[in-house]
Fold this sequence. Notes:
The chain has helices at residues 2-8, 24-33, 46-51, 54-58, 76-89, 103-107, 118-131, 150-161, 182-185, 193-202, 217-223, 234-238, 242-249, 259-275, 297-307, 316-322, and strands spanning 13-15, 39-45, 67-72, 93-98, 136-140, 167-171, 207-211, 229-232. By secondary structure, it is α/β, with parallel strands linked by helices. It has two domains: 2-249, TIM Barrel, CATH 3.20.20; 259-322, Four Helix Bundle (Hemerythrin (Met), subunit A) (Up-down Bundle). InterPro entries: Aldolase_TIM, DUS-like_FMN-bd, DUS_fam, DusA, tRNA_hU_synthase_CS. Keywords: Flavoprotein, FMN, NADP, Nucleotide-binding, Oxidoreductase, RNA-binding, tRNA processing, tRNA-binding.
Amino acid sequence: MNAVINDVIDRRLSVAPMLDWTDRHCRFFHRLISDQVLLYTEMITTGALLNGDQEKLLGFSPSEEPVAIQLGGSNLDDLATCAKMAEDMGYSEVNLNVGCPSDRVQKGRFGACLMKEPDLVADCFAAMQKAVKIPVTIKSRIGVDDDDSFDSFERFVDTVSSAGCQTFVVHARKALLKGLSPKQNRSVPPLKYEYAYDIKSKNPNLNVVLNGGIETVEQAVEQLNHVDGVMVGRAFWNAPWLIRDMHNAMAMGEQKLTRDEVLLAYVDYCQHMVKQGLSLHWLIRPILGLYHGFPGNKKWKSHLVTEAPRRKDDVTVIKEARDWVTYAG
Length: 329
């Protein structure tokens, strides 16, 4: 069953899970741009899910599918329970975070520090995969602190894949658990794409998705000569239409909505959301970079961030902001 599902999911292009960013509104917007890009939730800890508002944390629109949920944790029973909850809610994949380097995450014994415990990660994977029929995947770094040799990374992959894991999303930087902030950990340690390339070369049966430093269409397409897919984060945050450009370059199917049509569809979505009591302020974040690179972009963003908090249920703010942009197409 899992092999079939893995074949159905197109892993060539995905949007990275980003804390305080890839919420359900952002995912709805991204799905308007591409009907094939694989979308991820923000990382959700097992503790938050088991003890918090499950509907709020797990809820999403069927129009967002396919959506993968990223979990953070290391307790086998908790991970299995949360994975099953996600499957029951309709998620297409469960991903375990083995890459976040924040102090808070380390204290909870999950994230990048788990790379030091490959046997535990393998057990976590096995527990989740036993609980669900959808694919379970791993997102990791290439190492932590001084333990960043290729041999060490290969041992990690071999250990986890021996438990049955078929898909590894590799942020091709090591994580420094002390001395760097999470933001610095996304840019300071050097990228070593060759680690991901070599894992794929030595394990052609595995799905290897590369993450880290991919900012252009050309870079993304080039990576497909070496790995199965690319995952992009901050570049899509700054310029979300890059999703469409990469989608087209990878021949992932015709997309009919223009940039302005995507915006109008999102305005309709915002209207629906504000009627449910949500503030427009929280809905404009995904679209701030929609007209990145066009004349009037700064005024577009300025109007949105100034007016949306003041006119919390007035979606005409978005249409007013659009008038500042010189763009046709």
